Every structure is written in structure tokens, then in C-alpha cells.
Amino acid sequence: MLDKKVAGLLNEQLNKEFYSAYLYLDFANWFEDAGLAGFAHWYEVQAQEELDHALAIRTYLCDSGCRVRLDAIARPDKTFEAALMVLEAGLAHERYISASINEVYAGASEVKDFRTMQFLDAFVKEQGEEEKNAEDLIKKMKLFGGDARSLYLLDKDLAARVYAPFNAGTETNA
Ligand code: OFO
């Protein structure tokens, strides 16, 4: 059985992961509308990964004897005038999620819940990678986004992203 506060923090994180999936699908919709199908695909894959994160937390909570609560998912309400703004919002969101994961980790550490800390290690690592991916996208857009031909090639490049299931060591991802 998990500490009540740790279980609550994990449940909140689960809902944030569902929101992340929703947000990235909204980004994908923006790029579809802008005619950049490769960027749209990239964010669709990202949304799938976010669902993996949510499901991994759900499995962990269930396996720990906790009742999972699903909250309403807020409607992504940002409007963007340029692709770079979308990418920058993506980086800001990843930084927010990293801070949130760190808070859950700190909560687990406070009550010496080493099992939960170990479970979260994969999330801490994943956040590092996702922040870097978001930063790289911004750099590429700044380098190539101003030229139509280069943007076309970058879009093609992003269309090649392959979905790789997240493995947090839970049954969902086995
Ligand atoms: Fe859930 O991986 Fe980043 O946000």
C-alpha cells in the first residue's frame, strides 16, 4: 500500500499525462491545418507516448492496491500564429512536466518509498530526453524554418518518427 500523499501525487500525474496526450494531439491538429503533415505525425507519436505514461502510472497504482481517479481533461486552449510558437509551447510543457515528476519523486523520497522512486526513474530519464527533443525541434525550426524548401525537407524528416512503446517495467508495457 502506498502512502496516501504519494498515491495522490501519482494520480495527479496520471491525469497530467492524459492532458499531455490531448495537448500534443491539439498541436498535431494545428500542423495538419498548416499543411505540415510530418510535424503533425511527430506530435501524434508524442501523444501516443503520453498515453503510455498515463497507463504505466495507472498500472502501478492498481498493482499497489490504490483506487485510480480519472479527472476531466481540460481543453487545450492556446492559439498559435506560427509553427515556432507551437514548438516553444511544447518545450514549456515538457519543463512543467519534468518539475511535476520531480515533485512526485520528492514526495516519495520524503516517506522513504524507494519502490516508487525506482518506478519513477524511467520517467525522470524520459523527461530529460523529451526536453532535449523539444529543444532540438526549436533549433531546427530556427535554422531551416525560414526557407520553404528546407522546411519541406524538415517536415519529411519528422514524418519518419517511429512510435516506440514506453517501458516503465509495469505489466502495461511488458
Ligand atoms: Fe509524459 O512525457 Fe514528457 O511530458
List ligands, each type once.
hydroxy diiron-OXO moiety
Q: State the helical fraction.
A: over 70%
The proportion of residues in beta strands is under 5%
CATH class: Mainly Alpha
Whole-number average pLDDT? 96
CATH superfamily: Ferritin, core subunit, four-helix bundle
Domain count: 1
Number of helices: 5
What's the end-to-end separation, in Å?
Answer: 22 Å
The total beta strand count reads: 0
Poorly predicted parts: none
Helical/strand content category: mainly alpha
User: Measured on Cα atoms, how large is the radius of gyration?
Assistant: 17 Å
How would the global form be characterised? elongated
Main traits of this protein?
single chain; 174 residues; mainly alpha; Ferritin; 5 helices; binds hydroxy diiron-OXO moiety
Strand-helix topology:
Layout: H1 4-33, H2 37-63, H3 83-110, H4 114-144, H5 148-158
Describe this structure in words.
With 174 residues, the chain is mostly helical. It has one domain (4-159): Ferritin (Up-down Bundle), CATH 1.20.1260. It has 5 helices and no strands. The protein has helices at residues 4-33, 37-63, 83-110, 114-144, 148-158. The longest helix has 31 residues, at 114-144. The mean pLDDT is 96. Hydroxy diiron-OXO moiety (OFO) is lined by residues 17, 20, 50, 53, 94, 97, 126-127, 130.
Short structural description:
This protein has 174 residues and is mostly helical. It is built from 5 helices and no strands.
